Each structure stands twice: as structure tokens, then as C-alpha cells.
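User: Predict the full complex structure for these chains.
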Amino acid sequence: MRIAEYWRTTTFRLVLLYGAVFLAAVVSLLGLIYWRTAGYMTGQIDLIIRSETRQFAAGSPEKLPEVLDTYQARDARHVNLYGLYSRDGRWINGNVTQLPPSLAVDGQVHPLDDYRLLKAPADDLVPPARAMAVILPWGETLVVGRDVTQLFAIRRIILYALLEGGIAITLLGLGLGFALSLRPLRRAQAIRLACERVVAGQLDTRLPVTRRRDELDYIAVTVNTMLEKIERLLTEVKSVCDNIAHDLRTPMTRLRARLYRLQQESGKAGRKTVKIDELIEDTDAVLRRFKALLRISEIEHGLRHQAFDRVRVRDILTQVVELYAPLAEDQGKHLVLKADIAGEIVADPELMFEAISNLVDNAVKFSPPGGTATLSLFEEGGPCLDITDQGPGIAESERAAVLQPFYRGEQAGHTEGSGLGLSIVSAIVRLHGFKMRLEGAPAGGTCVRLLLYSQAFAPKAA
Amino acid sequence: MPKILTIEDDAATAREIVTELQAHGFEVDWAADGKEGLAKAIAGGYDLITVDRMLPDTDGLAVVGALRGMRIESPILMISALSDVDERVRGLRAGGDDYLTKPFAPEEMAARVEVLLRRRSQAGAEVRSLQVADLNLDLIARSARRGGKDIELLPTEFKILEVLMRNPGQVLTRTMIFEAVWHYHFDPGTNLIDVHLGRLRKKIDPPGTPPLIHTVRGSGYMLRENR
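Assistant: Here is the predicted structure of the two-chain assembly.
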């Protein structure tokens, strides 16, 4: 199965959707925590800065440098920033060497990152800080600040947590999606295969039902009930048809026998005898139809009785061509056999002959005068037989219908036939597990392709 | 006059068979079930027996088997509503000589009976060539001559002519010809066999010669000398 198939499953999409929602929830939760924590810490720092500034301003101007020294001495972690500057901006005391140009002297706490520390090289990076600057009552300028590296560390931790968590959740979601999709996908596949068998005509196929009784099973059970009903209806219709054919066959045969006797008694040709001849022909046509109809059921029900054997398709084709060549020639048509291979298959030779005869009969019938019907046997994944005519062809929309009993193509006009030939072929092909395809021939006619090898119902490439 | 026994439980079918065979000049006895049929057959002297596949008391196959077991070698025509290929094989294997599926055209049945009767009278003789009037068919050299003139025949035409010449003066239905030449048992339909016979006729009966191949209206074909 390809990735695209996984992606298309409902389960996979659901898992991914859940993953995305979860990721969004985690991001917003961590974001909220960061925002709250950072806000609280900033508030605390600002509070300290403001209260220290107030203390310093309330003290005496002479002792301030000394007080600043004491504070700095107590600050073992070196997180506090102080700076005392004269009216004309000269440094007096503190670890900040000059009044930072970006810091507004307005008594408010601002973020600060362009200050210089006393005992650090000029090009050294300083940690991010928050600071405020005030003009003391006696005219000097005081800067009080605090290193907020910690705050940034927390932000980094949270960002990394988001990144790592996000990757983990995404991978987990994808993996879980694949794992959980596997089963529904397999079941969908099984259902699809079952449906394809039904479409191919195996109406006794049922969709697989598990013991879990989940929503797929509900559908499968419903579809199975439906299939059962369809099968029963079809069987009923068919058996009614068969019964009618069967019951009418005997009186029709009697009728024909009486006509025949009349014909024999009426002696030499006259107007009356010609009419009797026509009546016999019509009766024969009806009987042929009944026979063909019953033949289909016979083939369909005869599965276990058939004599399967190794058969050379080429030999059968030769026989069929021998049978039909004079007919084709009389109608000014050509019958061409191209067989590069012997085409050994396991089949019932009698039925294969019947099937191929029917197809050749059609091909000759529908070929225009001067046209050619071609039989070509070749190898393509197994023995294949193409029977091509140059007739009017079958419209793509009609191709499925022509396999149904009694269907006659619109162009068939008054061409003779029971309308059951293709149905018989279809039944024989199905019995053997072969396949029949109707295609348009390049020259405009019809090409019937028989795939003369038994094949599993492989999913068709979409 | 050949004597024929018909073992058939269905009265209507039996009447049909009897009427048709009598019309062809045979003497026909009718037995309505297997027991009566066996008794009559043993009592004897029938040139041919038709046996229905499904009888009320016994299986038609069993009747055939019993007859053959008692060394009654009259040709047997099996008549059955079962048209399955397997059924045909089983019928022939049990000792039947030909197999006819119900419902059948009476002339088809009569034609088969006649062929069976004739085959029996020919049995044993190894035939190397067939001769009807001035038409000669050499089965070894696989060549045909009429009135000293060679006739070019395609393999199919040769086979059809052989079937006709083996049964001169006898009606052969289209189905019988198809079965004898192609060895398949289904209705090839349309006028396929007619076309084959038409071509053969052109070669065998050229203008100016008395025709040997005759169309029997409503039934089939017959090869015989015009008398």
C-alpha cells in the first residue's frame, strides 16, 4: 500500500487531526505558563528595582556612594546594576560605567541591553537587564537595574520544550495513524476485492464481517443482505425464464413435428408447401433460442461435471476456422487466423469450441462485405485470443449490455441470431475462470479479447 | 423389415417415436418401463432398441448395462432429457451407440436409427475405399474421383464426403454431419453446414452430371444415385 492510501483513510486523518489539536493545546498551555511566569518575575524585579531606588533617594547624598558599595558587595551573584552620575553625566560610583543612552530618565523600569559593566572588556556582551533611571533630589542621576538572564533562560527552556514536544507529538501521531489505519485499510481492501468479485459476476460472494460489530460490519452485513436478495431475485428470474423455455420446448417440438409431417405429406413444391417451410424455419428459430437459453443454465450449473483437460487453443481455432471459412467466403468476407503460439490451456475443449464458434459467428456476421475477421492467439501474461471484426463496432456504453441475454446491438438490424451467443460465451468464460473484454478495434470494429488463463481477482490499477 | 423396440415411459413421446419409425417402414414395439423393456428385449430379435434415460422403475443406463451384460448386441439409441456432455459420455460408455437429447425432431431420431442399423450391417469389414455410383473415395490415399476425374477436396470437404458415403441412401441431418465431422455436440446454428454442403456439391456434382448429393426437405442431406 502506498502512503497516499494510508493518508486517505479516515482513521489516519482523525489521528493526525487529534495530533494537531493536541499540539495546539500544548503550545498554548506552555505559552500561557511562560507568559504568566515571565510576567510575575518581571513584576518582582521591577518591584525590587523601584523599592531600592526609593531607598537610595531617601538617603543622604554624601553616603550614597558608600551605600552602593555595600549593596554591590552583598550581591554575590552579580545580578544587580547600579550607576551614579553627576549632573554633567560623569560616573561617580556603581558597576555601570556610563549612563546608557537608550535608557529614558523617567522613573520607569525599561528593558536594557546597551550598558557597559565596570570590570568587563568594552566589546563584551552584557546580559539582558531591566533598569530605571531617576534624577535624585540633589541633581545627580541614579540607575538601578537587574540582570534578567534567568527570564530568558526560562523562555528558552519553554521554547525547546515546545519544539521537542511538537516533533515527538507529530512523529507519534503519524506512527499511530499508520498503525491504526492498517486494519481498517486491510478490511476496506477485503471489501473492495469482494465487491470486485460481485461486479465480475460472482453473486454468491459476501463481504467479510468481523466479530467486532463495528460500523464497517454494519455496512457489510447490510450489503450482504442486499446481495443475498439480489442473488435470490436473479435466480428466481432466471429459473422462471428457464422453466418457461423448458416447458415451451416440448409443445414447440411437437408443433414442429406436426409441421414436418404436413411438409412430408404435402408432396412437391407449391405455394402451400413454401409456407410450411417458412413455418418450420420460424419454429426452428424459436427452438434455437430456447435451447441457447437452457444451454446457459446448463453451463452455469455444470461446473463440477465438466471434463477439463489440457487443450491447445490453436487446434480449436483451426477447427473453428475450417467450420466458418466457407460461410465467410460465401459472403465475400475473410477469416484470418494468426497463431504464434500453441496456447496450451486447461479447459473443456467442447465448451471452448462452442465459445470461440459463437464469437467467430458474430465477427463474420457483423463484418461488412469484403471485410476481414481476424483471430489472433498470442502471449500476454498468458494465452490471449483476440477476435476482431471490421463491423460497426460496439459503443463503449453498450459494451456491458451486450453481454446480457437477448441484447442486440442497435446496428444489428435484421441480422439473424438468437441474441444469446455472447451470453453463452460469457458463461463459458466465467466457468473457466477466464476473462472476456470488449474493446474497440483500431480499424473501427469490435475486438473481443479472451484472457485464457485463470486469474485471481487482482485489484485493477486505478 | 427391421424390428425396433422402444423403451419409453412417456406415452406422448413413445407415440411420436413409434409413428415416425413406422412411417420409415419399421416394425415397432413399445415397452413403458424398464422391466417390460428388458423382458421384451431378451425375448428378442430386435434390430435396434431405443432407451429413455429416465424410466419410472430403473435407470435407462442400467437397462443398457443389463442388455449388454446378456450379450444382446443390438444397436441402442439413448434418448434423454439430460443434455450434459457428461451424460452423453456416460450413456455411450454404458453401451449405448448414439445419444439423442429431448426434445428432438422426429426425423433426426429416424435418421439416427437408420444410420445405426446400417452401421451394424457393415460392422467388421475394414473399408479402404467407398464407392457410390461413379464416385469413389479412397480412404488410404485420401483422394476422390468421379467418373475417372480427380476431385480436389479440402480436408473438411473430404471428411463430410466420407460421412455421406459411409451412409449412402440415408438421410443425415445437419447436426449428425456436424457431430461426425467436428466431433462436438452442440447446435452450430445458422446455415453453416448448408454452406459446406453447397461447396462440396459444386465439386461432386458439376453441371451435366446426375446429382449424387440430395437435399431432403426439412431434414438434411442424402447421398445416393438417382434411380
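The mean pLDDT of chain B is 87.
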